């Protein structure tokens, strides 16, 4: 064998060895957790970003040895991205967003040695034990927004722009909003608009419809608009800004997400994904796998132009909702 052939042989052997070597995460003494985001990416000013922060904190607290994330560019990437972490031997695989629910459930069924946490993904009757849905009480989040809207309105008319009521989470958000307004001031008129007749392919991304409905509510005299449903809801928030009326967002910090169009967003109600990810990491590493989890939520602090008493009242209501002292009476599913 001449010198050049020897070099080629050695390089080929090294490449083969590197391809077949087991990743560190397969070792029992190495605990790994990975996050697969939806198409909003890691800097979504919401659940994805917060979940990643929770993973980083978990690592700093020695709850994980390795943490990583993959941003999904397209929905067709979901299976490939989940499979990457499976192939690397990750102990916990977190997926963020309802659009990943089918692929997450499928992966959990095929990979019993890993634990899958589905953030904002529904419980499933046929789900395996290693699938843990992590959700937030949308009815309570909407209720808090409704209570705030009732306190802010001067015209006595408030509205909500929501994705299809056929999605249980949307139903709970917006009926929770209705209940919160009524609880705070039953003289306030409430208009709730669902995108029930729209194109199914535009679910969560129909910004034009959301903007049209936001404009419609403003024309009807609403001076506070609550919006839920991804980009669809953002359309309504943009409309509120154009009309110079208050808006309340959800799912992420909508003022930050909208950037140049944030002046009307008073606050956003959000699930504290980072805190919950840390808590679940701690439970799972100790061998305690919950069947499902309902996480804590909060809101982006109000601007200093609002009286401090308003924040005090919202914080009190948060505590009362958490303790069960205040009930929303919103059904889990649309009747």
Radius of gyration equals 23 Å
Strand content: 15-25%
What is the CATH homology-level superfamily of the largest domain? Response regulator
The unreliable regions are 1-22
Shape: globular
Average pLDDT figure = 91
| Major sheet: arrangement of strands | 2-1-3-4-5-11
Question: What is the number of strand segments?
Answer: 12
- SSE topology string: HEHEHEHEEHEHEHEHEHEHEEH
**Biggest pleated sheet:** 6 strands, parallel
Q: Please give the alpha-carbon distance between the first and last residues.
A: 78 Å
* CATH fold annotation of the largest domain: Rossmann fold
The percent range for helix content is 40-55%
Main CATH class of the largest domain? Alpha Beta
CATH arch. level architecture of the largest domain: 3-Layer(aba) Sandwich
What's the number of helices? 11
Protein architecture, described:
- The chain starts with a helix and ends in a 12-residue tail after the last helix.
- It has 335 residues and is of the alpha/beta class.
- It folds into two domains: 22-136, Rossmann fold (3-Layer(aba) Sandwich); 138-263 and 301-323, 3-Layer(aba) Sandwich (Rossmann fold), CATH 3.40.50.
- It has a six-stranded parallel sheet, with helices on both faces. Strands 7-6-8-9-10-12 form a six-stranded mixed sheet, with helices on both faces.
- It has helices spanning 3-20, 47-60, 78-87, 101-110, 138-152, 168-184, 207-219, 230-243, 254-258, 273-285, 308-323, and strands at 32-36, 66-70, 92-96, 115-119, 131-136, 157-162, 189-194, 224-228, 246-250, 265-271, 293-295, 297-299.
- Residues 1-22 have low confidence and may be disordered.
